[in-house]
Amino acid sequence: MDDLLADFVAETREMLEASEGEIVAWEADPADSARLDTIFRFVHTVKGNCGFFDFPRLAGLSHAAEDALADCRAGRRKPDAALVTAVLAIVDRISAMVDAIEAGEEFPEGGDDTLIAALGNDQDASDLAFDEPDGTSGHGAASGLVSTDAAASEGDAPKRVDPNPSVQRSIRLPVDLLDRVMSGVSDMVLARNDLGHRLRQAGNQPTIDGPFERLTTILSDVRDAITRMRMQRIETLFSALPRLVRDLSAELGKQVMVDLEGGDVELDREMVEMVRDPLTHIIRNAIDHGIETPSARLKDGKREIGLLSIAARQSGNTISIVVSDDGRGLDEKRIADKAVETGLITASQRAEMSREKILQLIFEPGFSTADTVSNVSGRGVGLDVVRDNLEKVGGSIKVSSQPGIGTLFTLQIPLTLSIIAGLTVEVGDQRFAIPQSYIEEIIHSSAKALDFTRVGETALVTFRGDRVPCLMLSEVLALDQGDIGEGDHTMVMLRLASGDLFALAVERIHSHGDLVVKPLAPAVMRSEIYAGSSLLDNGEPILLLDVTNIASRYGLVSDARTRVREIGDDIVETAKNTVSRAMLFTDFDNRRCAIRLELVKRIETAPASALDLTGTKPRAVIDGAILPVVGLPEGQVPAEKVRLLRLSDGECELLHAVRDIDDAVELSGKLKPERDDPLIEAVTLINGATVSLLDGHELFTRHGEPPEMLAKPLCHIPDDEWSRTILAPLVVSAGYEIADGSDDQNIGEGAVRIVFAEDNDTVPAGEDGPVIRLRSELDAGAGDDSIYRYDREALVRALGDARPARGATQ
Amino acid sequence: MNDLMVMTQIAGRRCALPAHDVKSVIELSTITPVPQTPDFIAGITAMRSQALTVIDCRLALGFAEGDWETDDRAAVVAIDGHFYALLIDAIEDITTTTSEPGQVSGGFGPEWSRVAKGMIETAAGPALLINFPALIAGPGDNQAGLHAAA
């Protein structure tokens, strides 16, 4: 009996959740008979089940609602706002009663009759039609539609009350059981890895390898499925929102239409719960503060009904949920005033802050611009709690807004709590994992740009022009330093959620991949260095570092006030980074020049001999391609080797010769357009000196051409068995193509020709290409420049010598 | 009465672990050390896909390291949802108790009193019944625990 009751409660809940959204949708479009059917089915099922158990009150309520809805279905009655509210009230009461049944409590008496009366079942249907408070012409048309629609559906109504609605079949499972299955599968994967290792040691065994491969495939399928078991569609979260929006807007006298998108995005069950409160809070805020009253909206020339759209999207390992409204937008001035008033920022700080930065202030603790504390929002639990809760699970929140146009909140949350992308690093022969989300960049410390210094005991590195504190992981963990020099560290740049940046020096980077994070024992957690443990593919446990805690132990997390400023700076900085970075160099006229970094494909170093200055345009051969060269000095190249910037616009390429390559820099200064020299786009200041920024467009217009791949040089060989089978492979391996006899003279021109010294007459007249003579005798006669045909070294050398000669003449 | 006990040697003394609480006995192979944690936490190791915290019981009691041999076997226990591998000298036998835990006048010595629920008589002779949470709390927390209790 208890089981049956539990099933009843569970089933009712599930249907409740599903139908709430339907009811609101139905209210928006009363002609939609499909919605009506869903709700009807719900109350109908509840009624039926109640009869089965002994719940007379539930039965009474659901019966009344069923009657009213049946009238609508039959077209005897037109659904209106009052009816929807009444049905919703009954649905609410049913849900409350179900809760009481589950808890085994008695539900307080009374109240049912009023609810039933609100349905107005006893009223005459025609009365209701006239009682319609403000039936606009649109409504009238709709009502006509309803009746025809309902009449049409009346005939097949009995068929539609289908006891097996076409919903996805599902069963309920305790999460414990799921976890057990998950860890079972993880064990299987480890056992498989072990087995695979042993099989490899044992050597190739086709009879075993086949089934083993199959096992591997099946196992990875099962693993995927199990992982998905923990996932839930975000729909479950969304389905409650239309109701929330409806109730709130009714309460506040506003009209809001809600638009949901991306309900099929899947999220870890636990994460869905974590997001529920923040999302609700933001929606409350949007309706209370964002969307104006209908009259105010009309005055501003907007539609009477406000639009609230909530969209979920998955990108890689994060889900972003965007909540946007078309309300009045955030008032920058009021936010700033309030922040100054509450001492969050000073007046001078305010003057320097961009709009973007000021808007983010709404997430600071103790901030609320609501003039009056309403029932809905502004109850002291502010957006700071929302942000803190999101950050706790590794998420973030941002706001942007246009005055009078609307506000947009972007929530970023990781896909799951238990699987994270991590980087495996090594220090002191031990491996540790760092969550990928913190990692900004990985730099090898020997790079000149890092400029590793120690100020007192504190280590500093220079990262994009800023001095950034640096922690040695070996020191953090109190491991033996070993004999690794300070220059041999690899720096992992970590960006905290607060926007602070620091470098963590490790000995080596191993790999990155998804880690299944498991909690650690309290005694280990007390060290406040580790966030959890995970197992590597080989079954070896690995510790996950708690980056935030480590940073705060060393005082690297700034307090709230400076934090605001740094977040703002950060936004500006990243914006700059995406705009322009350039490669700084000195050309042969000793001018300091720069070229946009996007154009630079590679930096090449070529010997001066690779340059061909004979033609009208200088050219060079790089990697078998002939490319035009610009920027060369007049006359002879002054060095043995030339540094060349290989520029590419994706299709065409060219080489820019430079005297010295300086560094990659940010184009932070103002760009002053240069008109006199078409090859120069602008002049700017970098580190206090003027730099000419080359005009990529002009450069490619003048000199760019698709790289011309060098055809392999041809080689004629004598037409006999020995040459074809023994000589030819050697010639090919020396980088030649064998010319067949049918080649016409043009292609054959300049080709290397191998002939036997013995039969001189085979050299055609007019052939000017190099000729290699082979002789059959080991000993050469006097003045003979021929090569003994089995003298491999000499032959390869001769073939090699023949090549550049050809390259130069072309 | 008549409970099953895993009889072990810890720091040269015979101790009893309730068999019901011991999930399994494993051979410790590789232990990954956990830097910046108390000495008695030997590290973490993996039992199938489960990460275990390895507790060196001798050190957790407050004895010095290396005074006793170990056969590298450990008893796996679950405390508050976390799994621990208790590194002990040796595992001897499984036997039944023949008495309720009792106290001895004068106690068992400061180290032992902290982690013992009392003395029990077993078929294999008297043994100290171990209180797991007190054991894994380690010697450092002993003082704090006593103060808190007082």
Features:
heterodimer, A: about 800 residues, alpha+beta, Four Helix Bundle (Hemerythrin (Met), subunit A), Heat Shock Protein 90, 6 domains, 7-stranded mixed sheet, 6-stranded mixed sheet, 36 strands, elongated, B: about 150 residues, OB fold (Dihydrolipoamide Acetyltransferase, E2P), 5-stranded mixed sheet, 3 helices, about 45% strand, globular
**CATH homologous superfamily of chain B - what is it?**
CheA-289, Domain 4
Largest beta-sheet characterization of chain B: 5 strands, mixed
| Percent of sequence in beta strands of chain B | 35-45%
Unreliable stretches of chain A, pLDDT < 50, 5 or more residues?
123-165, 371-380, 559-578, 743-748, 805-810
How would you describe the shape of chain A?
Answer: elongated
Class based on secondary structure composition and strand pairing of chain B: alpha+beta
Tell me the name of the CATH class of chain B: Mainly Beta
Which structural category do the helix and sheet elements of chain A fall into? alpha+beta
Structure description:
The complex is a heterodimer of chains A (810) and B (150). Chain A has 810 residues and is an alpha+beta fold. Chain A has six domains: 2-160, Four Helix Bundle (Hemerythrin (Met), subunit A), CATH 1.20.120; 175-229; 233-414, Heat Shock Protein 90, CATH 3.30.565; 423-574, Beta Barrel (OB fold (Dihydrolipoamide Acetyltransferase, E2P)), CATH 2.40.50.180; 580-709, Beta Barrel (OB fold (Dihydrolipoamide Acetyltransferase, E2P)), CATH 2.40.50.180; 714-809, Rossmann fold. In chain A, 41% of the residues lie in helices and 25% in strands. In chain A, the strands form seven sheets. In chain A, strands 21, 22, 23, 24, 25, 26 and 31 form a seven-stranded mixed sheet that branches. Chain A has a six-stranded mixed sheet with strand order 10-14-15-13-12-11. In chain A, β19 (581-586) and β20 form a beta hairpin. The longest helix of chain A is centred in the N-terminal third of the chain and has 28 residues, at 175-202. Chain A is elongated. Chain A starts with a helix and ends with a helix. Chain B starts with a strand and ends with a helix. With 150 residues, chain B is α+β, with helices and mostly antiparallel strands. The model of chain B is unreliable at 141-150 (pLDDT under 50). Chain B has one domain (4-149): OB fold (Dihydrolipoamide Acetyltransferase, E2P). In chain B, β9 (116-122) and β10 form a beta hairpin. Chain B is 19% helix and 44% strand. Chain B is globular, with a radius of gyration of 15 Å. The longest helix of chain B has 18 residues, at 132-149. Chain B contains three helices and ten strands, in the order βββββαβββαββα. Chain B has helices spanning 57-61, 110-115, 132-149; strands spanning 4-10, 13-18, 22-27, 41-47, 50-56, 73-79, 82-87, 90-96, 116-122, 125-130. At the A-B interface, α9, α20, β17 and β18 of A face β4, β5 and α3 of B.
